[in-house]
Amino acid sequence: MWPVGKWPEGIVYDGDAFWIAESGQRRIARLDERNGAVTKRIAVGRLPVDMLGASRGRIFALVYTDRLVWEQPRRGAGKKTCATARLSRGHGGR
């Protein structure tokens, strides 16, 4: 069992660690792949629901209520990369 926050939704692996969207906490959490310990928590906005891995260890989180996408590099500070104009009902239009 991994010690994640309230309402975990999305999960992705960046090549070094797992990242989980903690929707009820308004953040994403980085978990060590070896033991599941939380090594970092980052506030990203209201209701992060889905995660995606990309090149160079970057991950992206869909922050549903704030209608934005958060980009987090493997190292360093993350940032809001774009605002979503409109989302349909359900996560990402599903």
Can you give keywords for this protein?
94 residues; mainly beta; 4-stranded antiparallel sheet; 48% strand; globular
Folded structure, characterized:
The termini are far apart. The protein is globular and about 35 Å long. With 94 residues, it is mainly β. 0% of the residues lie in helices and 48% in strands.
Please describe the topology of this protein.
Elements: E1 8-13, E2 17-22, E3 27-32, E4 38-43, E5 48-53, E6 59-63, E7 68-72, E8 79-83
Antiparallel strand pairs: 1-2, 2-3, 3-4, 5-6, 6-7, 7-8
Question: Which spans of ≥5 residues are poorly predicted at pLDDT below 50?
Answer: none
Structural class: mainly beta
**C-alpha-based Rg, rounded:** 12 Å
Distance from N terminus to C terminus (CA atoms, Å) equals 28 Å
Percentage of residues in DSSP E strands = over 45%
Neighbour order of strands in the largest sheet: 1-2-3-4
Please state the overall shape, judged from the principal axes of the Cα atoms: globular
**Series of H and E elements:** EEEEEEEE
**Beta strand count:** 8
Number of helices: 0
- Average pLDDT score: 85
Q: What kind of sheet is the major sheet?
A: 4 strands, antiparallel
Work out the helicity level: under 10%
Compact overview of the structure:
The chain is mostly beta strands and 94 residues long. It has strands at residues 8-13, 17-22, 27-32, 38-43, 48-53, 59-63, 68-72, 79-83.
